């Protein structure tokens, strides 16, 4: 048991590089609506968040995992320390850094908010579910709610007085949200009677806030089947009166909580609405049948947030593994491994350990760059809206195509990298005394919730590729192409930039292959069969590009530094991240493109009964 | 909680195919020393083992995970039900199927024993650690012990009266076994006083047997440093008198047990030997300083056993995921996904689910074939020894080269496939109500213990490739080549056989590349940097080959079957396993070969300090 010990660590220098050197925070900050923000303010927030993550959230991570949540008198009791952490988190404004001032936030660029979130998630992924869902509910209501709803709910959600949830999943409606059976019956006073059971509701009940505001997808009686017939309702656990105070119970009952592989500090609830037919809800925005599109406003943010969760844990796993590898002595140097009298060396000197660490480093930095880039596009779209609508549309388009990459690649790699961290530790990694086995367990859900990674892949291939006549994808490719053209003969990275160009060609040809399939009914099943592969290819091109972009910048910065400048090794590190990824990952994209043209449909051709003789 | 519910399932038809149709059990059985065995006897054992796995071991798997082990009065108490299971296991002879009759076993070919083990491990990996270690200790003593030691210990180990362990690891001697500090001081009567602490000792203490026989690596005072100075000792928990009865305590104290990510029913112990300087041990075989080579006799078997553990869990995960996918309805058919009124279909109809299932199926079947093949070589080596020594040497050589593949590829894929099973389940897979999250947690240790997978890779690249002047590897390649030549123009699988040929070429060229590096001191670090990649390449060639071999057999068998024969779909399934693997995995081998010649040494070139600015 390591209750009370903080394991969270990161490297602020790397966060600063990504925000300030690679993605030009200064170009975004300082102008409306981010006038109040400059690099100094941002650095102060990052330092403060790191302190909070190490001092408050980190020490609760393993203890909450061991203790888990429990149900008493129909309420979830969260693990020890969560209440205090919740209070401090909201008081100190970590969750509202990026919230506009008119909703009580500090109005920073999203670039800063994602870096803050990375630390909060990395320090305690389970805890951060509660404020995360609350934040999402507040965002949705501040965008889609009526004036009255905004007034009544948003402020209290954003100061932690109340918690929020999103209630989509039902026992027979998971990925298939449209199959939801929860019903809503209109009452004469404009409210609705809600009835149904929702499952897998994260933060569905807890003892952190005085009330919980559920956002519930339900079907108004007589509405169409499928997602089009769904409406979104505000269903508080305790009814909220006109003056905004919460009072009597609203027939919202906790069914049970799940026992899970990970994120044990986060309560995953079954919630029964309207067991006594007295559960009242109000329609979000006052409009029926648009629940799904309203929910999607929250869901896009939630998908990005899942990518950030992945990054947070993968990064924490990397830095812990690195520290362990520098500390732990085992075996002699590999050039002297036959000599038992040679001095024992820290395991970071063993080639395979270095290989694992560099693999982790490059992935973590590349995924971080991808996420900050996405945030930068969001910020610029906001800034340019109404000033330069074409540029704003370009930025919004990049957000569209990058979102499934961030969610799916970020989460798939997180789990893989956390498992790799266990391998760096050896047997110790499997033991609960060290933090990495928990990171691995916690991270497994990221590839599943907020739309499985296959749903992300289909979103990319089936929607985003063709969106705006293919313009978003094309612009992404042009951006990569611009970098390639500018750096093809780069003195240090020329070879690797050419590898990026080859990968990009593979990606382009695969996009064309998919386009061909979409026009041939006999081949249409090849699209879902290849979607995950395509998402990975595009993610690898994006990450390879951003790592090389960082390396080119790092090399320029090195030129201006004295031989003894402590930043030299940092910039050296950026170069090796890019080199490793370009040499060891980018070639897989071309290879995947070659596999694509095989048009292997074997999973569709094998008869169901042939999967096993006896099942 | 799913205590008491069995989740274990397999497909005996598939096991029968591998043993009887693909690897010619009949050619091995029926002749000395396996005279008593024929297919009928083997099938009866497999059926009986499956029954035992479902009825006795399976129902204890999740309950043992939840309950774990605990320490009371200095002794480990194992989870509920383990005592009864232990008793039945030995009584009914499941562990001694392959043990020679003169040691009280049934003397079956190893081919049968590995299939039996797969089921025992798949049903309850944690439980099977206890008899597994006991079996290993018995095997070692029956090979290396003096006549007296054999008499005193082997029988009681093999009937479950006593348990056994292997005690290698110490706090500062994990992968670096040679750094062990546990000491042995000669006593005038020929016994030794043992002193030291061993950690991560599986089954190091428990309540299943009346005594525990530890096999302890220790250094006799004055012996050389490193592995060469280690000797192996029999150190019983309770002293054993000349008549074979166990009596007084032997100063062997349980320090503590670990809390782990998985295999929670297996006690992982810290054991203190000689805290009061009264811990007596006797030298295995009566010879000092050969402890490491004696231990290796046990370790080779243990490494194969780990591969089997991986196979057991991956296979159980596959069949559970398959059953769930056939049962669980979610979403409409992908050709009608926009129509919410289309009937909901079992998720096995969704292309990406089929892709995951076929990926699991092909890997599980291919790894099973690899393991049974290794066992077949062991059996034939035993049979041919003294009759045809050249052929016997060939078979032993194949065991040498295949062992690291079975251990490392088997365990790496097991973890990956168990995680994939979670993905098939979606959110339910993350919940403890279903068995797959436990399979995933349990399987993570397999890539670490009994020599990390990098140690396996170095064993392959640094020892096995060059063993016997490279003959073993060359014979492996000739066997693959023979299959390729015979089937290059196969009417159904010709394209895929050519893919195998291309993969084999890639493997060959990489072996040559590695040979070159070994002769150039400036490039020697590329060997450990590439060893894992090479092991994976060779495993993929081996598995691709064996799957195609099975497919060719299946197609022949199909020719003789009537159109309504229920075996038709089974043989169809074998074909698709091979096709999928050949198209989606084999091309990666060529790609890996291309990466090899890049000679990327970036992990060695990055300075330690450049991994992070602030750590």
Automatic annotation (TrEMBL), chains A, B:
Record-linked Gene3D superfamilies: Acyl-CoA dehydrogenase/oxidase, N-terminal domain, Butyryl-CoA Dehydrogenase, subunit A, domain 2, Butyryl-CoA Dehydrogenase, subunit A, domain 3
Coiled-coil zones: none
Keyword set, alphabetical order: FAD, Flavoprotein, Oxidoreductase
Cofactor dependence: FAD
Residues of the Acyl-CoA oxidase/dehydrogenase middle domain: 166-273
Sequence ranges assigned to domain Acyl-CoA dehydrogenase/oxidase C-terminal in this UniProt record: 291-460
Stretch forming the signal peptide: none
InterPro entries: Acyl-CoA_dh-like_C_dom (IPR025878), Acyl-CoA_DH_CS (IPR006089), Acyl-CoA_Oxase/DH_mid-dom (IPR006091), Acyl-CoA_Oxase/DH_mid-dom_sf (IPR046373), AcylCo_DH-like_C (IPR036250), AcylCo_DH/oxidase_C (IPR009075), AcylCoA_DH/ox_N (IPR013786), AcylCoA_DH/ox_N_sf (IPR037069)
Recorded GO CC terms: plasma membrane
Residues annotated as domain Acyl-CoA dehydrogenase/oxidase N-terminal: 40-160
A Pfam cross-reference name: Acyl-CoA_dh_N
PROSITE patterns: ACYL_COA_DH_1
Any GO MF annotation of the entry: flavin adenine dinucleotide binding
Domain Acetyl-CoA dehydrogenase-like C-terminal: from-to ranges: 476-607
Family statement drawn from the similarity comment of this UniProt entry: Belongs to the acyl-CoA dehydrogenase family.
PANTHER family: ACYL-COA DEHYDROGENASE, BROAD-SPECIFICITY LINEAR ACYL-COA DEHYDROGENASE FADE5
Identification of the protein by name: Acyl-CoA dehydrogenase
Organism: Hyalangium minutum
């Amino acid at each position: 048991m390591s209750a009370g010990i903080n394991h969270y660590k990161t490297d602020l220098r790397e966060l600063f590089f990504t925000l300030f050197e690679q993605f030009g925070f200064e170009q975004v900050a300082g102008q409306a609506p981010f006038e109040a923000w400059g690099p100094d303010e941002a650095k102060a927030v990052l330092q403060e968040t790191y302190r909070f993550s190490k001092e408050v959230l980190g020490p609760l991570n393993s203890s909450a995992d061991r203790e888990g949540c429990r149900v008493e008198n129909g309420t979830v009791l969260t693990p020890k320390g969560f209440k205090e952490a919740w209070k401090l988190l909201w008081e100190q404004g970590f969750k509202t850094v990026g919230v506009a001032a008119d909703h009580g936030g500090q109005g920073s660029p999203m670039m800063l908010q994602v870096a803050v979130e990375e630390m909060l998630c990395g320090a305690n992924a389970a805890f951060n579910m509660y404020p995360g869902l609350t934040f999402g509910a507040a965002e949705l209501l501040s965008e889609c709610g009526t004036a009255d709803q905004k007034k009544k709910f948003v402020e209290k959600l954003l100061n932690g007085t109340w918690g929020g949830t999103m209630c989509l999943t039902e026992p027979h409606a998971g990925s298939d949200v449209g199959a939801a059976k929860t019903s809503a019956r209109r009452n004469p006073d404009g409210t609705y009677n809600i009835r149904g059971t929702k499952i897998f509701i994260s933060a569905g009940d807890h003892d952190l806030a005085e009330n919980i505001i559920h956002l519930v997808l339900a079907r108004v009686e007589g509405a169409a089947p499928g997602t089009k017939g769904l409406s979104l309702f505000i269903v508080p656990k305790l009814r909220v009166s006109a003056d905004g105070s919460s009072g009597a119970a609203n027939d919202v009952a906790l069914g049970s909580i799940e026992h899970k592989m990970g994120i044990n500090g986060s309560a995953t609830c079954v919630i029964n609405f309207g067991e006594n037919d007295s559960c009242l809800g109000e329609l979000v925005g006052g409009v029926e049948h648009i629940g799904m599109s309203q929910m999607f406003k929250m869901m896009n943010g939630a998908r990005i947030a899942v990518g950030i969760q992945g990054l947070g844990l993968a990064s924490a796993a990397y830095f812990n593994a690195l520290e362990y590898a520098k500390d732990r002595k085992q075996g002699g140097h590999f050039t002297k491994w036959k000599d038992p009298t040679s001095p024992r060396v820290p395991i970071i000197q063993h080639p395979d350990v270095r290989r694992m660490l560099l693999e982790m480093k490059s992935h973590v930095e590349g995924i971080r760059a991808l996420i900050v880039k996405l945030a930068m596009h969001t910020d610029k779209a906001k800034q340019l809206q109404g000033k330069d609508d074409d540029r704003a549309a370009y930025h919004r388009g990049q957000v569209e195509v990058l979102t499934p990459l961030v969610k799916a690649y970020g989460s798939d790699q997180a789990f893989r990298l956390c498992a790799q961290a266990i391998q760096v530790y050896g047997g110790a990694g499997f033991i609960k005394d060290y933090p990495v086995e928990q990171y691995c367990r916690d991270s497994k859900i990221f590839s599943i919730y907020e739309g499985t990674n296959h749903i992300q892949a289909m979103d990319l291939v089936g929607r985003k590729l063709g969106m705006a006549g293919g313009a978003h994808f094309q612009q992404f490719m042009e951006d990569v192409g611009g970098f390639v053209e500018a750096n093809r003969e780069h003195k240090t990275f020329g070879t690797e930039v050419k590898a990026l160009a080859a990968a990009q060609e593979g990606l382009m040809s695969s996009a064309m292959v998919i386009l061909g399939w979409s026009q041939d009914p006999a081949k249409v099943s090849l699209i879902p069969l290849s979607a995950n592969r395509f998402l990975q290819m595009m993610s690898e091109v994006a990450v390879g590009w951003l790592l090389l972009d960082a390396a080119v910048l790092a090399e320029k910065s090195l030129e201006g530094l004295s031989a003894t400048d402590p930043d030299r090794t940092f910039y050296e590190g950026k170069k090796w991240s890019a080199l490793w990824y370009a040499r060891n990952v980018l070639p897989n994209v071309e290879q995947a493109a070659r596999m694509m043209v095989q048009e292997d449909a074997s999973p569709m051709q094998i008869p169901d009964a042939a999967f096993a003789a006896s099942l």
